[in-house]
Amino acid sequence: MKAMIFAAGRGERMRPLTDSCPKPLLKVRGRPLIVWHILNLVRAGITEIVINHAHLGGMIEEALGEGERYGARLQYSPEGTALETAGGVAQARHLLGDQPFVAIAADIYAPHFPFDKVFDVLEANDVWGNPYPADQRDLAWLFLVKNPPYHPLGDFALNSFVVSEEGEPKFNFSGIGVFRPELFDGIPPGEHAKLGPLLRRYAARGQVGGDLYRGEWANVGTVDDLAQLNAPFTPPAVPGQD
Protein backbone atom coordinates (compact mmCIF):
# COMPACT_ATOMS: atom_id res chain seq x y z
CA MET A 1 0.00 0.00 0.00
CA LYS A 2 1.12 3.54 -0.77
CA ALA A 3 0.47 6.67 1.28
CA MET A 4 -0.18 10.29 0.41
CA ILE A 5 0.52 13.16 2.77
CA PHE A 6 -1.33 16.40 2.06
CA ALA A 7 1.24 19.16 2.51
CA ALA A 8 0.12 21.89 0.10
CA GLY A 9 -1.77 24.18 2.47
CA ARG A 10 -0.68 27.77 3.04
CA GLY A 11 -1.25 27.71 6.80
CA GLU A 12 -2.78 31.19 7.00
CA ARG A 13 -3.75 30.83 10.66
CA MET A 14 -0.17 29.87 11.51
CA ARG A 15 1.30 33.14 10.23
CA PRO A 16 3.83 34.62 10.74
CA LEU A 17 5.49 31.21 11.30
CA THR A 18 4.41 29.95 7.88
CA ASP A 19 5.66 33.04 6.06
CA SER A 20 9.13 31.49 6.08
CA CYS A 21 8.47 27.83 6.91
CA PRO A 22 5.92 25.48 5.31
CA LYS A 23 3.42 24.28 7.89
CA PRO A 24 4.38 20.57 7.61
CA LEU A 25 7.92 21.42 8.74
CA LEU A 26 6.83 23.16 11.94
CA LYS A 27 8.09 21.13 14.87
CA VAL A 28 6.08 19.42 17.57
CA ARG A 29 8.13 18.04 20.44
CA GLY A 30 11.34 18.44 18.49
CA ARG A 31 10.24 16.82 15.23
CA PRO A 32 8.52 18.28 12.10
CA LEU A 33 4.85 17.37 11.84
CA ILE A 34 5.33 15.59 8.54
CA VAL A 35 8.23 13.51 9.88
CA TRP A 36 6.00 12.11 12.64
CA HIS A 37 3.77 10.74 9.87
CA ILE A 38 6.61 9.38 7.75
CA LEU A 39 8.20 7.49 10.63
CA ASN A 40 4.85 6.13 11.75
CA LEU A 41 4.00 4.93 8.23
CA VAL A 42 7.38 3.25 7.82
CA ARG A 43 6.94 1.53 11.18
CA ALA A 44 3.78 -0.07 9.78
CA GLY A 45 5.56 -1.17 6.61
CA ILE A 46 4.25 1.61 4.35
CA THR A 47 7.37 3.00 2.73
CA GLU A 48 6.19 4.44 -0.61
CA ILE A 49 4.88 7.89 0.16
CA VAL A 50 3.64 10.68 -2.12
CA ILE A 51 3.74 14.25 -0.81
CA ASN A 52 1.98 17.11 -2.55
CA HIS A 53 3.13 20.66 -1.92
CA ALA A 54 2.63 24.24 -3.05
CA HIS A 55 3.60 27.02 -0.61
CA LEU A 56 7.38 26.85 -0.02
CA GLY A 57 7.31 23.33 -1.41
CA GLY A 58 10.96 23.41 -2.33
CA MET A 59 11.81 23.61 1.35
CA ILE A 60 9.86 20.41 1.99
CA GLU A 61 11.77 18.56 -0.72
CA GLU A 62 15.09 19.94 0.54
CA ALA A 63 14.35 18.95 4.13
CA LEU A 64 13.08 15.42 3.42
CA GLY A 65 15.00 14.46 0.29
CA GLU A 66 14.14 11.09 -1.18
CA GLY A 67 13.34 9.68 2.25
CA GLU A 68 16.20 7.23 2.65
CA ARG A 69 17.11 8.51 6.12
CA TYR A 70 13.63 7.49 7.27
CA GLY A 71 13.54 4.16 5.47
CA ALA A 72 11.02 5.55 2.98
CA ARG A 73 10.80 6.27 -0.72
CA LEU A 74 9.37 9.77 -1.14
CA GLN A 75 7.88 11.16 -4.33
CA TYR A 76 6.57 14.69 -4.75
CA SER A 77 3.56 16.14 -6.52
CA PRO A 78 4.14 19.90 -6.85
CA GLU A 79 1.19 22.23 -7.35
CA GLY A 80 1.52 25.79 -8.63
CA THR A 81 -1.37 26.75 -6.38
CA ALA A 82 -2.87 24.42 -3.80
CA LEU A 83 -5.54 22.25 -5.45
CA GLU A 84 -7.34 21.23 -2.21
CA THR A 85 -7.35 17.62 -1.02
CA ALA A 86 -9.35 15.89 -3.76
CA GLY A 87 -7.64 17.99 -6.42
CA GLY A 88 -4.29 17.07 -4.93
CA VAL A 89 -5.09 13.37 -5.25
CA ALA A 90 -6.24 13.80 -8.86
CA GLN A 91 -2.97 15.56 -9.66
CA ALA A 92 -0.95 12.74 -8.07
CA ARG A 93 -2.91 9.78 -9.49
CA HIS A 94 -0.01 8.74 -11.72
CA LEU A 95 2.16 8.32 -8.62
CA LEU A 96 -0.42 6.54 -6.47
CA GLY A 97 -1.24 3.62 -8.76
CA ASP A 98 -4.53 1.75 -9.00
CA GLN A 99 -4.77 0.21 -5.50
CA PRO A 100 -6.27 1.71 -2.32
CA PHE A 101 -3.96 4.14 -0.55
CA VAL A 102 -3.91 5.79 2.86
CA ALA A 103 -3.94 9.59 3.00
CA ILE A 104 -3.00 11.84 5.89
CA ALA A 105 -3.24 15.59 6.47
CA ALA A 106 0.24 16.88 7.27
CA ASP A 107 -1.06 19.36 9.84
CA ILE A 108 -2.41 16.85 12.34
CA TYR A 109 -0.45 15.33 15.19
CA ALA A 110 -1.20 11.65 15.80
CA PRO A 111 2.14 10.15 16.88
CA HIS A 112 0.79 6.71 17.75
CA PHE A 113 -1.77 6.16 15.01
CA PRO A 114 -1.85 2.41 14.16
CA PHE A 115 -1.23 2.48 10.42
CA ASP A 116 -0.95 -1.30 10.44
CA LYS A 117 -4.77 -1.27 10.69
CA VAL A 118 -5.31 0.35 7.28
CA PHE A 119 -4.42 -2.55 5.00
CA ASP A 120 -7.70 -4.48 5.10
CA VAL A 121 -10.37 -1.86 5.71
CA LEU A 122 -11.51 -1.60 2.08
CA GLU A 123 -12.48 -5.20 1.42
CA ALA A 124 -12.99 -6.18 -2.22
CA ASN A 125 -14.91 -9.37 -1.35
CA ASP A 126 -17.71 -10.32 1.03
CA VAL A 127 -17.33 -12.88 3.83
CA TRP A 128 -17.94 -15.71 1.35
CA GLY A 129 -15.20 -14.50 -0.99
CA ASN A 130 -17.52 -13.08 -3.63
CA PRO A 131 -16.47 -9.74 -5.16
CA TYR A 132 -18.63 -6.78 -4.22
CA PRO A 133 -20.28 -5.13 -7.23
CA ALA A 134 -18.47 -1.91 -8.08
CA ASP A 135 -21.47 0.22 -7.13
CA GLN A 136 -21.74 -1.40 -3.68
CA ARG A 137 -18.21 -1.59 -2.31
CA ASP A 138 -16.78 1.09 -0.06
CA LEU A 139 -14.72 3.72 -1.86
CA ALA A 140 -13.40 5.32 1.33
CA TRP A 141 -12.74 4.44 4.95
CA LEU A 142 -12.50 7.32 7.41
CA PHE A 143 -10.98 7.40 10.86
CA LEU A 144 -13.09 9.62 13.07
CA VAL A 145 -12.18 11.24 16.40
CA LYS A 146 -14.00 12.88 19.28
CA ASN A 147 -15.14 16.38 18.35
CA PRO A 148 -12.59 19.06 19.24
CA PRO A 149 -13.78 22.32 20.87
CA TYR A 150 -13.57 24.27 17.61
CA HIS A 151 -15.91 21.82 15.83
CA PRO A 152 -18.42 20.62 18.44
CA LEU A 153 -21.08 19.42 15.98
CA GLY A 154 -18.79 16.98 14.20
CA ASP A 155 -18.81 15.78 10.59
CA PHE A 156 -20.24 12.27 10.36
CA ALA A 157 -22.22 9.70 12.30
CA LEU A 158 -20.94 6.15 12.62
CA ASN A 159 -23.21 3.12 12.79
CA SER A 160 -21.68 -0.39 12.63
CA PHE A 161 -18.68 0.91 10.66
CA VAL A 162 -20.91 2.78 8.19
CA VAL A 163 -20.28 6.52 7.86
CA SER A 164 -23.30 8.77 7.34
CA GLU A 165 -24.32 12.41 7.61
CA GLU A 166 -27.47 11.31 9.41
CA GLY A 167 -27.62 10.20 13.02
CA GLU A 168 -26.16 11.03 16.41
CA PRO A 169 -23.66 11.34 17.85
CA LYS A 170 -21.45 12.81 15.19
CA PHE A 171 -17.67 12.68 15.18
CA ASN A 172 -14.89 14.70 13.59
CA PHE A 173 -12.99 13.44 10.53
CA SER A 174 -9.42 12.98 11.72
CA GLY A 175 -7.72 13.79 8.42
CA ILE A 176 -6.69 10.14 8.02
CA GLY A 177 -8.48 7.86 5.55
CA VAL A 178 -8.07 5.05 3.06
CA PHE A 179 -9.35 5.65 -0.46
CA ARG A 180 -9.86 3.80 -3.71
CA PRO A 181 -8.36 5.79 -6.62
CA GLU A 182 -11.63 5.53 -8.57
CA LEU A 183 -13.26 7.80 -5.98
CA PHE A 184 -11.46 10.63 -7.81
CA ASP A 185 -12.26 9.57 -11.39
CA GLY A 186 -14.43 12.63 -12.05
CA ILE A 187 -11.68 15.13 -11.20
CA PRO A 188 -9.22 16.00 -13.98
CA PRO A 189 -5.60 16.73 -13.00
CA GLY A 190 -5.05 20.39 -12.24
CA GLU A 191 -8.62 21.06 -11.06
CA HIS A 192 -9.35 22.50 -7.62
CA ALA A 193 -11.61 20.11 -5.70
CA LYS A 194 -12.39 19.56 -2.03
CA LEU A 195 -12.68 16.13 -0.44
CA GLY A 196 -15.66 16.87 1.82
CA PRO A 197 -18.39 17.07 -0.86
CA LEU A 198 -17.06 13.90 -2.46
CA LEU A 199 -17.20 11.98 0.81
CA ARG A 200 -20.72 13.20 1.56
CA ARG A 201 -21.93 12.15 -1.88
CA TYR A 202 -20.70 8.58 -1.48
CA ALA A 203 -21.66 8.38 2.19
CA ALA A 204 -25.24 9.06 1.06
CA ARG A 205 -24.91 6.02 -1.20
CA GLY A 206 -23.64 3.85 1.65
CA GLN A 207 -20.15 3.54 0.18
CA VAL A 208 -18.06 5.08 2.97
CA GLY A 209 -16.99 3.03 5.97
CA GLY A 210 -15.15 4.10 9.08
CA ASP A 211 -14.03 3.57 12.62
CA LEU A 212 -13.39 5.66 15.72
CA TYR A 213 -9.81 6.43 16.72
CA ARG A 214 -9.37 7.08 20.43
CA GLY A 215 -5.63 7.72 20.62
CA GLU A 216 -3.69 10.96 20.88
CA TRP A 217 -4.71 13.35 18.11
CA ALA A 218 -4.55 17.10 17.56
CA ASN A 219 -5.23 19.44 14.67
CA VAL A 220 -2.37 21.92 14.63
CA GLY A 221 -4.28 24.81 13.13
CA THR A 222 -3.04 27.88 14.98
CA VAL A 223 0.06 29.24 16.67
CA ASP A 224 -1.62 28.60 20.03
CA ASP A 225 -2.24 24.95 19.09
CA LEU A 226 1.44 24.53 18.33
CA ALA A 227 2.49 26.24 21.54
CA GLN A 228 0.21 24.02 23.63
CA LEU A 229 1.66 20.85 22.13
CA ASN A 230 5.19 22.10 22.77
CA ALA A 231 4.51 23.31 26.31
CA PRO A 232 6.59 21.57 29.01
CA PHE A 233 4.75 18.78 30.76
CA THR A 234 3.73 19.68 34.29
CA PRO A 235 2.84 16.68 36.44
CA PRO A 236 -0.32 17.03 38.53
CA ALA A 237 0.14 18.15 42.12
CA VAL A 238 0.03 15.45 44.78
CA PRO A 239 -2.17 16.40 47.74
CA GLY A 240 -0.20 16.84 50.95
CA GLN A 241 3.11 17.52 49.22
CA ASP A 242 4.75 20.89 48.82
Which tags fit this structure?
242 residues; alpha/beta; 9-stranded mixed β-sheet; 22% helix; 24% strand; globular
Topology readout:
Elements: E1 2-7, H1 17-20, E2 27-28, E3 31-32, H2 33-43, E4 48-53, H3 57-64, E5 73-78, H4 84-96, E6 101-105, E7 108-109, E8 140-145, E9 156-159, E10 162-164, E11 170-179, H5 195-204, E12 208-212, E13 218-219, H6 223-230
Parallel strand pairs: 1-4, 1-6, 4-5, 8-12
Antiparallel strand pairs: 2-3, 6-11, 7-13, 8-11, 9-10, 9-11
Number of strands: 13
Give the SSE order as H and E letters. Answer: EHEEHEHEHEEEEEEHEEH
Helix content: 10-25%
- Mind telling me the C-alpha Rg? 18 Å
Distance between the termini: 53 Å
Largest sheet: 9 strands, mixed
| Inertia-based shape | globular
Low-confidence stretches: none
Strand content: 15-25%
Average pLDDT rating = 90
Output the number of helix runs: 6
Provide structural commentary.
The protein has 242 residues and is of the alpha/beta class. Helix content is 22%, strand content 24%. The chain is built from six helices and 13 strands. It has helices at 17-20, 33-43, 57-64, 84-96, 195-204, 223-230, and strands at 2-7, 27-28, 31-32, 48-53, 73-78, 101-105, 108-109, 140-145, 156-159, 162-164, 170-179, 208-212, 218-219. The strands form three sheets. Strands 1, 4, 5, 6, 8, 9, 10, 11 and 12 form a nine-stranded mixed β-sheet that branches. The longest helix is centred in the middle third of the chain and has 13 residues, at 84-96. The relative contact order is 0.18.
